[in-house]
Amino acid sequence: MVDVGSVGDMTDKSVFTDDEWTSVVEGPTSAGFLVVTASPGGMFRETFAMSKAYAEARAAHGASELLDAVVSSKPKVDRTHHGSVDEQRVAALAHVREAVGLVALKATPEEVGDYRRFVLTLAEKVAAAHREGGQDVSSPEAKAIEEIRDALGAGSDQGAAG
C-alpha cells in the first residue's frame, strides 16, 4: 500500500496527481450517467437525483476526508463522444474501475469502502428517481447497477448505504 500522505489515517486529495484526481472525481458521475442512459425517460429527475446524492454526501461531511474532497469538487464528466450507447457504457465502466483502483492504491480500506458505497448509492438513487414501466428501477437500470457494482469490486460488505 502506498503511504497515504495525510494526517492520521485519512487520505486527502494531495496524494493524487491532477490526472488521477480527475479520474477519481469522474467515477461517480460516470456511474450516474450510465444509469441515466440505461433506459429512456426521466433524464431531468435522474440528473437531479445525482445532484441530490452529492448534496447529501456533503451534508454528512467529516466521516471521510477523501469522500469530502470528492463531493466538494465540481463533478466532472467525460465529454468524449462515443460512437454508440454500448461504447459509452464500456467507457463509463472503465472510468469507474480506474477511479476505484486509484482510490484503492492510495487510500485507507475504510475510504475505499466509503467511495464504493457513495458511487453505488448515487447510482441507486438515480435509478429510483423516475418510475419506468411501473417499476421503481427498470431492468436496464438494474443491469447497469450490477455492472457498476462489479466494476467497483463491491462485494456484499460494500453494498450501498440506505
- Supply the number of structural domains: 1
**SSE order in H/E notation?**
HHHHHH
β-strand amount: under 5%
Number of strands: 0
Helix and strand content put the structural class at mainly alpha
Helix content: 55-70%
Q: Supply Rg.
A: 15 Å
Instruction: Give the distance, in angstroms, between the N- and C-terminal Cα atoms.
Output: 30 Å
The largest sheet is: none
Q: What is the 3D shape?
A: globular
pLDDT averaged over residues: 84
- Helix segment tally: 6
* Low-confidence residue ranges: 1-7, 156-162
Write the layout of secondary structure elements.
Layout: H1 18-36, H2 43-59, H3 65-72, H4 85-106, H5 109-128, H6 139-152
Helix pairs in contact: 1-2, 1-4, 1-5, 1-6, 2-3, 2-5, 4-6, 5-6
In short:
The chain is 62% helix and 0% strand.
Outline the structure in words.
- Helices cover 62% and strands 0% of the residues.
- It has 162 residues and is mainly alpha-helical.
- The protein has one domain.
- Helix 1 crosses helix 2 and helix 1 (18-36) runs antiparallel to helix 6 (139-152).
- The radius of gyration is 15 Å and the shape is globular.
- Residues 1-7 and 156-162 have low confidence and may be disordered.
Provide keyphrases for this structure.
162 residues, mainly alpha, 6 helices, disordered N terminus
